[in-house]
């Protein structure tokens, strides 16, 4: 017999359990995994089939969970339902919606993320139960809490093994406690790096030689989406969500004692080798 259930925690929030819907996303589903990798799991949650929600006003709150197999699921986010739109929507980027399908079957919920369960996000693991096909359930259904994981520091994997999606890099840069070793490693070196647009394979070669090292340079891509590069700016202007497909890696590590001119020379050499001026995203 379990000593702790999800309902025990929800009751402490003061929310009415009868107004809460639990949703389980399975990463074994290809479409779900694609949205998850893009950092768009909220948008994936917003778009639903009308027949699955005959009474769309029934629940005021949705709590999403992520499962990667088996019956366990990790708490992802808690949302307040602000409303919904049918047939057409301006709540989600058009390139994320299959228009024909949505006009025929779609309902899109206006979800606002709330922090009432923030301390348990990515940490609280529940047993969804045997009915894993029931991807949405009422919060009044008892869900055993399997664990509440501590946030442990993630060890740096090494420069040669570093290949990061935009979402992964964003998570690392925004969490300097869990990824303290990564911040130390990336800020202590200068480097020539590679960005690949996974949509079409086009490449961009850049270099980091200023104060703060590679960490500071890559943070510009998270803050601006384009790093102030001309061709990337044009790409993001034409395709605003394209940056989610960027992949970051290191071509060569340079010691902090290496002169700026030498690093720029290395950068130009890689541009020439990879022909990124002619076929890629380098403008100069």
Chain-averaged pLDDT: 91
**How much is the radius of gyration in Å?**
22 Å
Largest sheet: 8 strands, mixed
Determine the structural class based on helices, strands and strand pairing. alpha+beta
Query: Roughly what fraction of the amino acids lie in strands?
Result: 25-35%
Helix content: 25-40%
Number of helices: 9
Shape: globular
Count the beta strands: 12
Low-confidence stretches: none
Oligomeric form: single chain
**Helix and strand sequence:** HEHHEEEHEEEEEHHEEHHEH
Distance between the termini: 66 Å
What structural keywords apply?
284 residues, four-stranded antiparallel β-sheet, single chain, 12 strands, 9 helices, alpha+beta, eight-stranded mixed β-sheet
Verbal overview:
The chain has 284 residues and is of the alpha+beta class. 29% of the residues lie in helices and 27% in strands. The chain has helices at 6-13, 30-37, 41-46, 99-105, 166-174, 180-187, 213-224, 230-238, 260-274; strands spanning 20-26, 47-49, 61-67, 72-86, 106-114, 124-127, 136-138, 145-148, 163-165, 190-197, 203-208, 246-254. The strands form 2 sheets. Strands 1, 2, 3, 4, 5, 6, 7 and 8 form an 8-stranded mixed β-sheet that branches. Strand 10 and strand 11 form a beta hairpin. The termini are far apart.
Quick synopsis:
The chain has 284 residues and is α+β, with helices and mostly antiparallel strands.
Q: What topology emerges from the helices and strands here?
A:
Elements: H1 6-13, E1 20-26, H2 30-37, H3 41-46, E2 47-49, E3 61-67, E4 72-86, H4 99-105, E5 106-114, E6 124-127, E7 136-138, E8 145-148, E9 163-165, H5 166-174, H6 180-187, E10 190-197, E11 203-208, H7 213-224, H8 230-238, E12 246-254, H9 260-274
Parallel strand pairs: 1-3
Antiparallel strand pairs: 1-7, 2-5, 3-4, 4-5, 4-6, 6-8, 9-12, 10-11, 10-12
């Amino acid at each position: 017999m379990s000593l702790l259930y999800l309902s025990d925690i929800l009751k402490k929030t003061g929310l009415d359990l009868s107004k809460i819907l639990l949703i389980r996303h399975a990463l074994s589903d290809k479409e779900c995994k694609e949205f998850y990798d893009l950092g768009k799991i909220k948008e994936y949650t917003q778009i639903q089939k009308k027949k699955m929600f005959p009474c769309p006003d029934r629940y005021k709150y949705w709590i999403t969970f992520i499962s990667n197999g088996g019956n366990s699921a990790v708490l992802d986010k808690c949302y307040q339902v602000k409303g919904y739109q049918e047939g057409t929507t301006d709540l989600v980027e058009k390139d994320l919606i299959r228009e024909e399908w949505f006009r025929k079957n779609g309902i899109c919920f206006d979800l606002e993320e709330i922090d009432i369960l923030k301390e348990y996000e990515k940490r609280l693991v529940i047993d969804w139960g045997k009915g894993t096909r029931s991807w949405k359930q009422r919060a009044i259904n008892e869900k055993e809490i399997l664990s509440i994981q501590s946030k442990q520091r993630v060890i740096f994997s090494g420069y040669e093994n570093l290949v990061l999606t935009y979402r992964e890099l964003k998570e690392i840069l925004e969490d300097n406690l869990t990824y303290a070793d990564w911040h130390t490693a990336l800020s202590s070196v200068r480097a020539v790096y590679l960005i690949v647009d996974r949509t079409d394979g086009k490449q961009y070669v850049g270099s980091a030689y200023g104060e703060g090292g590679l960490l500071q340079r890559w943070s510009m891509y998270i803050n601006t989406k384009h790093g102030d590069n001309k061709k990337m700016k044009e790409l993001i202007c034409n395709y605003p969500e394209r940056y989610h497909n960027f992949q970051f890696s290191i071509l060569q590590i340079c010691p902090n004692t290496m002169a700026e001119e030498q690093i720029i020379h290395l950068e130009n050499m890689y541009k020439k080798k990879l022909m990124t001026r002619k076929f890629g995203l380098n403008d100069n």
